[in-house]
Design goal:
The structure is a homodimer.
Chain A: H1 10-17, H2 21-29, H3 36-48, H4 55-62, E1 67-72, H5 79-93, E2 97-102, H6 107-117, E3 123-126, H7 133-142, E4 145-148, E5 156-158, H8 163-175, E6 180-184, H9 191-206, E7 210-214, H10 221-234, E8 238-241, H11 244-256, E9 266-271, E10 284-287, H12 290-306, E11 321-323
Parallel strand pairs in A: 1-2, 1-3, 3-4, 4-5, 6-7, 6-8, 8-9, 9-10
Antiparallel strand pairs in A: 10-11
The structure holds a DNA duplex.
Chain lengths: 333, 333
DNA sequence: ATTTGTTTGGCAACCGCTTGCCAAAAGTTG
DNA sequence: CAACTTTTGGCAAGCGGTTGCCAAACAAAT
């Protein structure tokens, strides 16, 4: 299957071009360092031999792997697709390779995987980490880390600005005449869950609405489904959920229970995941610019590679916005 | 941010354990090659120094990178999630790192990406490739390749057996009294599209039904939507689509046009993608064991690494099956 | 023409690990 | 106990690049 012609090395080029290997190296990596005509000669020889630099040989002396790791809790969670894509695009654009690792929602798996991968990457993006603050700080000690949707002291991060999306959403519900809201929360330990809840509360109160937190739910379809009873009990006319998955679970459970959406209950999710418009009615949701965030995370990491100091960096924050589809309507009189 | 204590090397261990570096190397990589007590001493020292082998240094002399690439056309296409996960799991289980690359549906991007990544991987899995047969063969010349859902002469592959799922589906429709079917096809060049169409045709004819191919559609929501008019024109009561995305697009367009699903039109998709149960009605679909296929692809690749000859290998074929949800019903009288 | 400065390209060490080869040590055998 | 085999661990040469240092070649300045 395979031919055994070993890949060309700079020595082959050197021989062909009649120069020293070091000259080849310089010609190819340090434009301007050597004479233009020599460089041309080298490049010509390289092309002729179909030369491709051996990344491992290069990584050894330099210590630069040109690879970054992106850790997510669950690859099959649609929230991450765009994050992954944004990161992948941004990385490959500058010649970096992205390796995606999955923690399977387990901090043990995450640690083990990181352990395994760490020596072969220049830095790590923690998309959704199960690690605690101390573990993250420790990791950041070894290789640069960029956190997504979370903040830890001394660690770089990129987080979205939930303010505009939430303000729009609450305003939207207020305009529709809703007075009593509920927030179906996600993981209590989640930074972004807290951020969303605080903003929601602030905005609701400002507009004279009541808001109840329905807490400790899995951020899944099941979690949304499981929260339905408590949503009913809360006697609210509109609910915002921690994410779309929960919103969809809730929506389906409500429909199954004979509660009409949006006539009896308005629902707004978070993230605008794939499939959130497949539902009946299609879900209104607060959109997160995940692809941009992914790209931003990569850029932030790249910057930290060249940074002189060790100051944590913060990516420019992308902004959320409300996407109105069919799951919100006037409050029942 | 970073501490500058360089990672421990086998030389550090050697010094600490009072042996030669080569002994350390052997102790750690060739159990049994050296004395058990010496090995224990070395391991102890390694642990003490928190040693972690430098994969680049290792890859240089051995040429083994312990990394494999998985190429998909579009990371955000939900069809691939499970494929990716299956591959990732299988790879990390045996200490391999998986790098995921996206061709963005472009053979140019695909070639360029492959070009960039090839030197740093041991082999490649082509999940959904835009490359033509010749390009694939050429690639296979350089590094072992495993194709998913496609066959090219002389190249290893793993493809699902569509037979049972399709037989079930056609039988199911026949049992419901349908006499006239349509297949909303995907990309004409797709191996799996052809396979599905042929099987569908064979089964339909065997059960005395007519079947029409509605061809040249994008395998997307839009493609499904765009095929609706032709489905109507075909005057069929049931349709099978190339994939779920198209089925969902078709379903929504049908509903929008006042054609009730499943009362007026039964629809069966392919793949059981994420969100295919979000629709109203939830989509009946022929499920592909994508996660298994992903794992199988990795295993096949690993086998080919150690194979003596250059014979292409074929992963054990996983089997499809029909998943009946709500989008199929009795044919209209 | 001499001094000084700048290009340019070669030399060789090094990055961390693997491995063929060899010799000392230990174990077997008759 | 000599002769032979096996075990064990050291030596050193790579793997394919990068890069500090140096000297030759050339250019500019006095």
């Amino acid at each position: 299957m395979r031919v055994n012609e070993k890949a060309a090395t700079i020595y082959d080029i050197a021989k062909l071009a009649g120069v020293n290997p070091s000259t080849v190296s310089r010609a190819l990596t340090t434009p301007g360092r050597i004479n233009a005509t020599t460089e041309a000669k080298v490049r010509e020889a390289a092309k002729q031999l179909n030369y491709r630099v051996n990344p491992f040989a290069r990584a050894l002396p330099t210590g630069k792997t040109k690879t970054i790791a992106l850790m997510v809790a669950d690859i099959t969670n649609p929230v991450f697709f765009k994050l992954v894509r944004g990161a992948e695009l941004a990385a490959s654009e500058v010649g970096y390779t992205l390796v995606i690792a999955e923690s399977q929602e387990s901090s043990l798996v995450e640690s083990a995987t990181l352990e395994r991968i760490l020596p072969s990457v220049d830095g790590v993006i923690l998309g959704t980490t199960r690690l605690n603050d101390d573990e993250i700080s420790a990791l950041n000690q070894q290789k640069p880390v960029v956190l997504v949707n979370r903040k830890v002291d001394g660690v770089s991060d990129v987080v979205p600005d939930n303010t505009p999306g939430i303000a729009e959403a609450v305003k939207h519900l207020a305009d529709l005449g809703h007075k009593h809201l509920a927030f179906v929360a996600g993981p209590a330990a989640s930074w972004i869950n807290t951020d969303r809840w605080n903003l929601l509360m602030k905005n609701a109160v400002e507009l004279g609405m009541t808001i109840a937190e329905i807490s400790s739910n899995e951020p899944t379809l099941e979690g949304g489904k499981g929260a339905f009873e408590r949503v009913r009990a809360a006697g609210v006319t509109a609910v915002v959920t921690y994410n779309d998955l929960m919103a969809i679970g809730l929506l389906r459970e409500a429909t199954a229970a004979g509660v009409r959406v949006p006539e009896d209950l308005s629902i707004i999710g978070f993230d605008n995941i794939f499939g959130s418009d497949f539902t009946n009615p299609p879900l209104s949701t607060i959109e997160m610019p995940l692809q941009k965030i992914g790209a931003e995370a990569v850029e932030t990491l790249l910057k930290s590679f060249v940074a002189e100091d060790d100051e944590p960096m913060h990516g420019t924050t992308e902004v959320t916005s409300l996407l109105v589809r069919g799951s919100t309507a006037k409050a029942k009189a």
